[in-house]
Amino acid sequence: MKDSEKQAIVKLNMVPEIGPVRFKKLLAVFGSAENAVSAGAGEIAQAAEVSGDIARRIISGFGEVSAEAEMNLCEKNGVQIITLADKDYPETLSLVENAPPVIYVKGTLEKDDIKSIAVVGSRRATGYGLDVAARFSRQFAQERITVISGLARGIDSAAHASALAAKGRTIAVLGNGLMKHYPPENRKLEDKIIENGALLSEFPMNVGPDKSNFPRRNRIISGLALAVLVIEADIKSGALITAKHSLDQGKDVFAVPGPIFSIYSKGPHYLIRSGARLVEDAADIIDELEPLSEWVKSKKQKIEREEGAELTLSQQNIISALENEFRGLTMDALSGKLKLTPSEIARDLLELELKGFVRCLPGSVYAVMH
Questions:
Q1: How far apart are alpha carbons 145 and 142 in whole angstroms?
Q2: Residue 102 and residue 13 in contact, taking contact as beta carbons nearer than 8 Å
Q3: Which residue, of 19, 61, 221, 308, has the fewest CB within 10 Å?
Q4: Overall CATH class of domain 3-65
Q5: How large is the average pLDDT for residues 191-218?
Q6: Distance between CA atoms of residues 352 and 365, nearest Å
Q7: What is the pLDDT, as a whole number, of residue 240?
Q8: Sign of the CA dihedral running 27, 366, 296, 275
Q9: Could you give the CA distance from residue 220 to residue 150 in angstroms, rounded to a whole number?
């Protein structure tokens, strides 16, 4: 990738109005981040499917942020910028539908980090919860399984610290930029994590902690891991949001039961009643890691096959349109929806049928092959 393209990707990521979904839409239409950054407000509005006001704010944002200064700041502070287009982007995270286009990493990411478990739970953990988090994380570390969490107070901090104490690796996913330190009492823990793992964030370097950032952060925690373990959590908690992200990503959720009188047992017990596996020891989870690893591998191979098919932009748009229609669409409906001529639609549909991406159902209705 050219340096100028990487710089443009960083610039897109720094504009608050452009999240992962809009980022993908812009690249799909313009073909590159450089082209997107150079586009006008009208083009941005159409490509990102946003109002003119939002498009103008995006254009204004391009002038307010400096990707060059951001990249210099990263270099000065030993932070690596990794984009979705880079080969060292974490494999499990790349499979997530709304994967962050840019991640900032301080420390090291290793190939073996794919063998990982997210350990999450309450910030106001009880002594029981802290002991459980320490026990599981220590056992994971002893089996060379990377522990992933969010560096929050309580369960998260106990998980990171215990993994490190057992000479294991751990990755902390932050809800702020890497120039900010939150919670402040974990500053020394951050330094230890960098030595045998990594701090990771999708947010630009100087973004401070904000309550809206943490739900976004949670999808990365589950996205990096093969599965999620929940230890103590209220029903309305970030840990349960992480568990939901894990399920949405097709991964398993495990939960540790607790005392029935504790409010922090309600989250794990709810998950167990909903189908999460009750676990009492790390061995209950470790036995299932190998098939999970195979699942990641097979999904990655499927994506590589699809990418190898070299679909045109219009063919990609047809597949996207059909994926959102349970009953499929006719050629005329596709033509109207995508603003393509019937002859263009017919040509693309034929190629997609031959490549095995779509099929024609009775009534000349087209649907995506699964």
A1: 7
A2: yes
A3: 308
A4: mainly alpha
A5: 96
A6: 14
A7: 95
A8: positive
A9: 10
Q: Read out DSSP for 212-257?
A: THHHHHHHHHHHHSSEEEEES--SSSHHHHHHHHHHHTT-EEEEE-
Q: CATH 3.40.50.450 region(s) of the chain?
A: 92-293
- Assess contact for 154 and 122: CB atoms under 8 A: yes
Spacing of C-alpha 325 from chain mean position: 25
35-93, pLDDT tens digit by residue? 999 999 999 999 899 999 999 999 999 999 999 999 999 999 999 999 988 989 998 99
Predicted TM-score (pTM) of the model is 0.78
The CATH number of domain 309-368 is 1.10.10.10: yes
CA 360 from chain center: how many Å?
34
CATH architecture of 92-293: 3-Layer(aba) Sandwich (3.40)
Looking at residue 44, its pLDDT comes to: 93
Q: Give the whole-angstrom CA distance, residue 171 versus residue 187.
A: 15
pLDDT of 294 > 90? The answer is: no
Q: Work out the mean pLDDT of the chain and round it to a whole number.
A: 89
Mean pLDDT, to the nearest integer, of 248-263?
93
Q: Where in the chain is the domain with CATH 1.10.150.20?
A: 3-65
What span, in angstroms and rounded, lies between the C-alpha atoms of 105 and 48? 28
Handedness of CA 150, 139, 273, 267 (dihedral sign): negative
Mean pLDDT in residue range 95-112 = 93
CB neighbourhood size of 185 (10 A)? 10
Question: Residue 229 forms beta bridges with which residues?
Answer: 119, 254
And the tokens for 228?
Answer: 């999620």
- pLDDT confidence tier of residue 309, bands split at 50, 70 and 90: low
CA distances from 315 to 26, 63, 310, 360, 369 (A): 16, 34, 10, 15, 14
